[in-house]
Amino acid sequence: MKKFMNAVDSMVAESLEGFVAAHEQLIAFGAGRKFVRRRTLTTGKVAIISGGGAGHEPMHTGFVGPGMLDAACTGHIFTSPTPDQIVAAIEETDTGAGCLLMVKNYDGDVMNFEMAAEMAAAHHAIDMVVVKDDVAHGSRSQGRRGVAGTLIVEKLIGASAENGAKLQDLKALGDGLNHRIRSMGVALRGVAVPNTRRETFVLGADEMEMGVGIHGEPGRSREAFTNATEIVEALCTAILADMGEVAPANALLFVNGFGGTPSPELYLAYGIARRFLESRGIPVSRSLVGTYVTSLDMAGLSVTLAMLTDAETALWDAPVSTAALNRLR
Amino acid sequence: MKKFMNAVDSMVAESLEGFVAAHEQLIAFGAGRKFVRRRTLTTGKVAIISGGGAGHEPMHTGFVGPGMLDAACTGHIFTSPTPDQIVAAIEETDTGAGCLLMVKNYDGDVMNFEMAAEMAAAHHAIDMVVVKDDVAHGSRSQGRRGVAGTLIVEKLIGASAENGAKLQDLKALGDGLNHRIRSMGVALRGVAVPNTRRETFVLGADEMEMGVGIHGEPGRSREAFTNATEIVEALCTAILADMGEVAPANALLFVNGFGGTPSPELYLAYGIARRFLESRGIPVSRSLVGTYVTSLDMAGLSVTLAMLTDAETALWDAPVSTAALNRLR
């Protein structure tokens, strides 16, 4: 496993330093380098704060900027940020309208964000949205995991906050979205965590892992590798079955790479998913294809389907200016 | 080698179909699906047309849109588009002010673009810029290769064309840039071309290939793999030595991933390159970090340094709206 790094212990910090330097007009380190924040905050806007383990880049630091997040806290690889980091982000970015914490549904993340919320509650209005979009489940205590759909929830809530929505309305928006966003992933190759240098699961030359998450955890089932059409249609079928009755709405189709899959393969998969959905009477109204929610350099992809109202679609279309997501209008 | 595909023969076409569908508000197929073009052309603007082999995505199709290219022609993997494709793009996108062809310096590309220019010359004003930014050389006939610096030349020329520059001025801009843009790449893993399913070079667990291009061709030298600081400083040292005397100018630093390297490693490398340049008295004024000019899923990266005038820097900052590159202002 060859990586561009100097030492395992310093790689996350060195990478963040380069990231902040490359985007210095947009973002800055918060106090003590505990988090990354927008360079300029908007007074009176609800602060949107997210975070999670490193190894999922560009999520979440790449989503900090006008139209999306105010701050993102990064932990060690595949490890939640500490409550201390999250409290520091709350204290620095709450300009009076409170904070909404955006959390992916993993035990460690939920625990640390809840602890931070309690620690800061005396001086800040705080609420939390826990994203749960994975068709495949995590541990029994955890339930559905938060995966690529997190990007969609953060984009919509970020846009709504920019429009002046209040904390309770943003919380309701996030909770409502959880019922209408579903994702499922497939891996063609496992992922080696730098600390251990061992792959979390090892696939044979003719195997793939269906239902994987974004931490190298094994998926629902190991299956024979097959062509892109069969793989992508299987993902879409599982998503539609899990979403249940789909009310008439605007479908947002998001094909996400896990880090080691080049964009032409993602676009090829997108074309298959789109035709499949359309054949099921679901026209695709908005699209996103790219490497946004990763599992280090894992070869694989996920398909996310979000069924959005017209108002939510307008939030998706709203301008955004971050390192990873830019939209002119 | 597991890839998301249905068949080797159809993978480029299927991927392009998904790409055009995902970005249908911005782009469209040209006649006969021979190229990708902006959905809306600007009458009286010089048409900027590029192209090259598939396998380098998002270049060049990802650079089609307002502020950058008008059309891009894609060949088979690592194979030039045919003169027929290029002529079709010229005929469809020349709105009266002529066409500038943007070509990376490879024998096959140069030959086919020149042939297309001759075929279309009777009815169209045509000129050509051949990008040559690689510190490492290709074949004897070829000289310097065109690699990641191509993105910078296409962005600046695209912005200048948008501002109403004439064909001869765009040609002069491109030729002038060739003297002030230098790139060098390193691979940690070779690349397997789908047709042959064999890696073009095989690296040991402790080896890296310095001076690689973007077609899986071997580089200048095989060296012992080492830490990121030593690798990146070696690339920067070679670039500065090759560029020669650097006039006072605005430095644009671009760290580009070859397809299989996750963004945190690119940002870590960026931080090293930036500090190194600043220690040599070259402050970095503009930055780009990401996976833009690829060699399928090769693990590796390149560093590009461009020394820009103030006018060129303003062109870099100009708005652009493409699938791969978006800038608000």
Short note summarizing the structure:
2 copies of one chain form a homodimer. Chain A has helices spanning 11-22, 83-93, 107-120, 149-162, 167-177, 228-243, 263-279, 310-317; strands at residues 27-29, 36-38, 47-54, 71-77, 99-104, 126-131, 181-187, 207-210, 221-224, 250-257, 284-290, 300-308, 320-321, 326-327.
Any overview of this molecule?
The structure is a homodimer of 329-residue chains. Chain A has two domains: 172 residues, Dihydroxyacetone kinase, domain 1 (Rossmann fold, 3-Layer(aba) Sandwich), CATH 3.40.50; 139 residues, Hypothetical Protein Tm841, Chain: A,domain 3 (2-Layer Sandwich), CATH 3.30.1180. Chain A contains eight helices and 14 strands. The longest helix of chain A has 17 residues. The radius of gyration of chain A is 19 Å and the shape is globular.
Could you name the CATH class of the largest domain in chain A? Alpha Beta
Pick out the low-confidence regions of chain A. Answer: none
What amount of the residues of chain A lies in strands?
Answer: 15-25%
| Most extensive protein-chain contact, per-chain counts | A-B, 61 and 61 residues
Helix/strand-derived category of chain A reads alpha/beta
